[in-house]
Amino acid sequence: MTKTAQASEKRELEDLSRAVEALIFVSDEPVTTRLLSDVLEEDRELIEALIEDLVKAYDERNAGLQIRQVAGGWQLSTRTECHEYVRKFLKTRPSAKLSLAALETLAVIAYKQPVTVPEILEIRGVQSASAIKTLLEKRLIVTKGLKETVGRPMQYGTSKEFLLHFGLKDLTDLPSIEDFQDLVQ
Amino acid sequence: MTKTAQASEKRELEDLSRAVEALIFVSDEPVTTRLLSDVLEEDRELIEALIEDLVKAYDERNAGLQIRQVAGGWQLSTRTECHEYVRKFLKTRPSAKLSLAALETLAVIAYKQPVTVPEILEIRGVQSASAIKTLLEKRLIVTKGLKETVGRPMQYGTSKEFLLHFGLKDLTDLPSIEDFQDLVQ
Amino acid sequence: MQTELEQYSFDFHKETAEIVAESRDELKIKIGEFAGPLDLLLYLIRQEQANIFDIPIATITDEYLKFVRLMKKLDIAVAAEFLVMAAQLIEIKSRMLLPRDPSAEDDEEIEDPRKELVDRLLEYEKFKAAAEMLYEKSTVEQAVFARGKIDSDEHNAEINATVFDLLTVFEKVLARHKEEVKMEIHREEVSLAEMIRRLKTRLRSEGELSVIAIFTEMETRREMVTAFVAVLEIVRAEGVKLLQRKTFGDIILKEVRS
Predict the structure, then answer these.
(1) B139/C223 Cα distance (integer angstroms)
(2) Are residues B98 and C155, on separate chains, in Cβ contact within 8 Å?
(3) What's the CATH code of the domain at A44?
(4) What is the pTM of this model?
(5) Domain ranges, residue A35
(6) Which ipTM was obtained for this model?
(7) A65, A117, A145 ranked by CB distance to B25: nearest
(8) A177 — contact with chain B (CB < 8 Å)?
């Protein structure tokens, strides 16, 4: 390859990397590698490599922002270190925490999905109706159709909102439930 | 000044610069130097210097984003060079959210199908013409033939697209009030 | 079934439930929040520093009952599940006291009456730990912020609704519909006397009234009929005339001053 060709290829990669950064920024929700590769008409591997470089670049220059993987896509967000200033600026307080009952119910749904109300009752040992309602209203869980069993009870599962709220890449990002066994004994 | 003092001052400046970047990023509109200096409790001159450095840093690393002065404040935006990709990307996103009117109309159609325009009017109490047009355009509803009654009005029902969008196997999968009975009480 | 104990904010690291002071006439406790009977049981077992695989069932049952009684005394809604668990504990306790069946063969494994409870507790404890993990993750996540709005956002939000939204919206429409029907009934209750009074007041202040305008204002047929009768009544009894200025023109209700 001639030097000029190399130089032009480097140039093209730079343009591409800029485009990737711009698209991650404009997207109002985490953007998938697939969508980026469709829009930019480039291999997914190349796009992934460019994102990795961008992530590193943000980390290295100690920026106030970071590119991170969440809810199945890539997102530009502030770094946790600045949260006090940001909160002061936005005049927001940490949003209301979920109750213990809601958190437990959510944990059962996350690990057992799709799961019905009686199945949740079985594990928690207590009715979870109002917790489920709260979780539905907060869009942390969604209905997953009726179960083909007596009474056809409604099944529940976690939503994309759930992944976003807890900063998870996807459901496999959840630690295995069996790992908790070792912790509690 | 001792070396340690210098180092600690440098550290503080870095933190401050990160905060400035984060605040410009989270703001809904261009943010003024004055507001930044109020929130960060630092001199305006210092803030201005930090912003200048940030602007330069974005320019130098040939980023896809830029910090620019607009309408009397500072704003993070994509660089003009990427506009073609950005425009293409935004086009891939489904346009316009369902309005409350459209969602209401869709709910009535989903639960009462097949249903005619006068029947929808009867239930919603308002005209639904434009909502129905939107829903047809989004292919969430389809026509279901004429009703054998005075005026032979058109009947509407939900489409296959509707099932896909809401993650339903079929219409029997649509939750009923009874399914949420435990929750709504 | 009673409503569960719910919707207190809870910090795993700060809040615990503990008996603060216990004297003959007073029992003071600081209650955090128990997410259910299993949660309370785990707490009591830990409090006793007991082995979960060998629960001192008599002690734990007593403690448990003391707690439930206390909750009642303090007027804390005790969910039915807490009482069910109390009954189960008492049952296990009594089964433990039963002498071993002498006819049973020696090598036959006798099931520990506590086994089922222990299994449930172990299973529950895993999810309790998972809940704590979620709590920690959300705390970290609350320190991360997405960008502010930019111009293009307005034009490309996805359809953002779930079946739950669909159902809730439908419920609201139906409720509103019912409300409207109620209001209609209310309007229909306008009596003839009331209608006459209203028309007279308006005539007095406006001098004349268009009959067509009056009828158009009416929302239901019933009201229209009432208005019609009211007009006839006013013309018959009072110093009021009906005027029609041209053929097929509007009819005017006009006060005739004497």
Answers:
(1) 43
(2) no
(3) 1.10.10.10
(4) 0.69
(5) 3-90
(6) 0.74
(7) A65
(8) no
